[in-house]
Design brief:
It is built from 14 helices and no strands. The chain has 311 residues and is an all-alpha fold.
């Protein structure tokens, strides 16, 4: 298996695990306070990763100390802030709004990649991304794009927008990972720092706002998000970025609504309507366009029209 195939598979698996996370989140909304969920999510991830990386991390302490500022910024953006903001925004805005704003994550990643790494955005890729966004909009609006004009935005939407920017920035920083740090050491260090930065806020929430009740629902939810939606998915996502680059990895993120819809059908008994099937097909078609090296018919037609207009 070559690096290209492996990178795509890693990104697909990470996206699938995050999709399961969204399905679980919809079932426990309001059960766990936002900072508490974020803190225990990363604390569990650190605990499970520690036995496999603690020795390597100690050996790499000089490299960690040398790059501590970079690691701290990466941890704050991708661990401390990103998911915590999503949990807060979910309390004050609708799932539809969150899904709409989440569309911006790959766009921010592509834009930042262009700035940071001078990566070119081809016409094919632009058409592919536009096709994907169109498919996502059909999915969110259930085929009635006019409903977009009736959506009202709340403070939580602004939080979600900032969360998207932070995760895009985290993705860019992962590609700039110091070579002297192995993927596991990098991941463990970032997880640990991010959890430590969360701890004071968790204490405040625990004392003055709402305590985390460790019942069966809480234990199941935090264990899943800690191991699979955090440890495993972040490792796969980081490796995908290394193998296939930020832009290709980012575009695969658009499969989250497709995976979430299928999972909701099987586990939450939510029906799949025709508009969802159509939108899923459009999203997959857009992904094929985006990752195709040679131009296909729609792209060629677009370029020919563009040339004729210029002439």
């Amino acid at each position: 298996m070559n690096n290209q195939t492996k990178g795509v598979l890693f990104a697909l698996c990470a996206t699938l695990l995050w999709s399961v996370n969204f399905v679980i989140a919809s079932g426990i909304k309001g059960h766990i306070p936002p900072v508490g969920l974020a803190f225990w999510r990363w604390a569990i991830a650190c605990l499970f990763l520690a036995p496999f990386t603690i020795k390597s991390t100690i050996k790499s302490r000089d490299a960690i100390r040398k790059n501590i500022r970079f690691l701290a910024i990466t941890a704050v953006l991708g661990i401390t802030i990103f998911n915590t903001l999503i949990y807060f925004s979910g309390r004050t805005t609708s799932a539809v709004n969150l899904s709409l704003i989440a569309i911006s994550i790959p766009l921010f990643i592509v834009a930042l990649s262009r700035i940071a790494f001078k990566e070119k955005v081809s016409t094919t890729k632009i058409i592919g991304i536009a096709t994907i966004i169109f498919g996502v909009l059909i999915l969110i609006t259930k085929g009635s794009l006019q409903s977009l004009f009736q959506i009202q935005f709340a403070f939580g939407d602004l939080l979600m927008l900032f969360a998207c920017i932070f995760f895009a920035s985290y993705t860019i920083l992962v590609r700039m990972k110091p070579k002297e740090l192995s993927p596991k050491v990098f991941l463990f260090t970032v997880f640990t720092l991010g959890t430590l930065f969360l701890f004071p806020f968790y204490l405040w929430e625990h004392i003055y706002y709402q305590k985390v009740i460790f019942d069966s629902t809480t234990i199941f939810a935090t264990t899943y998000v800690g191991i699979f939606a955090s440890l495993v998915s972040y490792y796969l996502w980081n490796e995908a970025i290394t193998l296939i680059g930020t832009q290709k990895t980012a575009v695969i993120y658009y499969l989250i609504p497709v995976f979430s819809g299928i999972l909701a059908y099987f586990f939450l008994n939510q029906n799949i309507i025709m508009s969802q099937i159509i939108s899923m097909g459009i999203i997959v078609f857009g992904l094929l366009i985006t990752n195709r090296k040679k131009s296909i018919v729609p792209v060629t037609l677009f370029l020919s029209i563009k040339k004729s207009i210029i002439k």
